[in-house]
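Suppose a classmate hands you a notebook page containing two proteins, each written out with its sequence and a corresponding row of structure tokens. How would you begin to make sense of it? This section walks through that situation. The first entry is reproduced here exactly as it would appear on such a page.
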Amino acid sequence: MKKIEELLSGLPAADGRRLYIWGAGNTAMLFREGLARVPQLKIEAYVDNDPAKQNKTIGDTPIISADKMIKDEKTLVLICTGQPAAFTAITKQLGDMGVDSANLEAVIFGLFREDVIKAYELLDDEESKRVYLTMLENRINCTFPEDDIIIPDQYYCLPKFRAAAAGETFIDCGAYVGDSVENYIWAHDGVFKKIIAFEPDKKNYTAMGFRMERLKKEWGISDDAVELYDYAVGDEDNTLYVESYDNNNGLGSKMSATKSSGSEECRTVTLAGYITDKCFIKADIESYEYKMLKGAEAQIKEHKPIMSICIYHNSVDFFSIPLLVKSLVPEYKLSVRQHTYALSDTVLYCTL
């Protein structure tokens, strides 16, 4: 039996259980996009110890306190956190309450066991398989990875993603304050055709504008070679809301279909009108990567851009994005690399 099959055997199942998700913070907000593609998991409510989150909702699902859960043999609480210390503390609290619990990620990976194996087998090189398997194990157990799989130069670490390309258009989805644009310019020695950058958070977008003015002066870049948009990218043209991640200075701002306190209205577009021949697409858009790909399926099939796509925001993306990309362009070679000492910054690299 392969190691991945051994890892995925015996994972907890949710069949016939009354399900709650424990954790209504940023991780739960990221997982809602993935869970929308998992109708098998019917969630009664989110549970959180923070009174400020209680009596609100995530989508249509209420957030409650622990004392409002039904606590019997049918109840299973799915813990939703990417922090090992928090996972241990929550597991203990639920154990003290006499309530069964499991890691939400482990349940999802067990439910989609065959798809996870298929995604793993699509990877083109042994290092990618080692990284994918290691991060899968870490996600199942809610533990941080060891140093030996972590490498620098996120989005540009592989040779084909650093090659100077005079005719290339770089499309940056989730450009934050322009740091990934600046890294692209450095990695490509300032050689490219055009940069198109999308960032929906207004504060981040303004900061990116200041950075781009500096970069244009430093590198002699013409104004018409750069297009900046304060839009989100998804599967349809729409109007949604952007929410800043509390106490994180604009990092990790995410999209929501519903307005909440502190959120701002935002235009959402597809990449259909932006992809042309010889493109490089980078996407780090807080669980909207799958929708971004769906919104540009025809153009990706036609133009076959190279892509650096984050797959870490929720465990459904971890296997469904590689499967989707390969179904669109069977010729793609898929690689995976890990870029931080956390359950984040796992990137899928797609090349011809």
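The notebook's second entry, a different protein, reads as follows.
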Amino acid sequence: MEAVTETHIEELPRLFKGKVRDVYEVDSDRLLLVATDRISAFDVVFSEGIPEKGKVLTRTSNKWFSMITHIPNHIISTHPERELPFLSRYPETEERAVLVKRLRRLDIECVARGYLFGSAWKEYLEKCEVCGVKLPPGMRQAERLPRPIFTPATKASSGHDENVPFEECIRILGDREIARIVKETTLEIYTWAHNLLWERGIILSDTKFEFGVDREGQVYLIDEVLTPDSSRFWSRETYQVGISPPNYDKQFIRDYLETLNWDKKPPPPPLPKEIIEKTIARYKEIERIILSL
């Protein structure tokens, strides 16, 4: 099966091509999001796609969106072909596209972390803190934090996102109340999902959310939710403190890339077929668990 790395819907103008999603304008109030099979790591998009990854992301996000009810989300329809019949001419969009509200996206990555890993681990080694949050000394890689923390990051259109303290998040958003809402919502959803997955033998190490606001200032959950692209999932059975735990997300690709002599700048190295196959197998396994919730 070939990966879908590009979409071209002639009836709609494409507003934006992200690392994974293509965003099309339907009208002044609606957008069409299409999740491709593009894969990025260290904020670099690779030439190869991961076949069916976009479908996994879309089905997984739709499941979580249907379960999170205490904050509105941007979904209008998970079957956009009913509103846009011409999509039948684009079979590559099937199970990849959602019709969503057009909102003003907040320019901050809202990250919740329950474990010391990734960029947080590197920052902790330097400062014994993460995004201005002081942590106990002597912690080890992948160790569970005393409590989940909010570690916002700037959204980079190119290059690497950068972790910032909460006060900088307030400055970027320009509204202390909205910053409070996204922080509290991020931690609330993370804690709820962590506990839910824990019962299924899965550890949700960390996750990233995005939010938007409408003309009245109402905050919405947008983009993708708790997918293997936006989250780190570990198995409780194989989890150990002090190592990079076996995972169900693209950490597998990151770990492979760390073995190469690559400066993490474009152009990216080619991804071997074995790495591609093992990646989608991990994505599908965590999808199976999430869809069974």
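A careful reader of the second entry would note: The chain has a mean pLDDT of 96.
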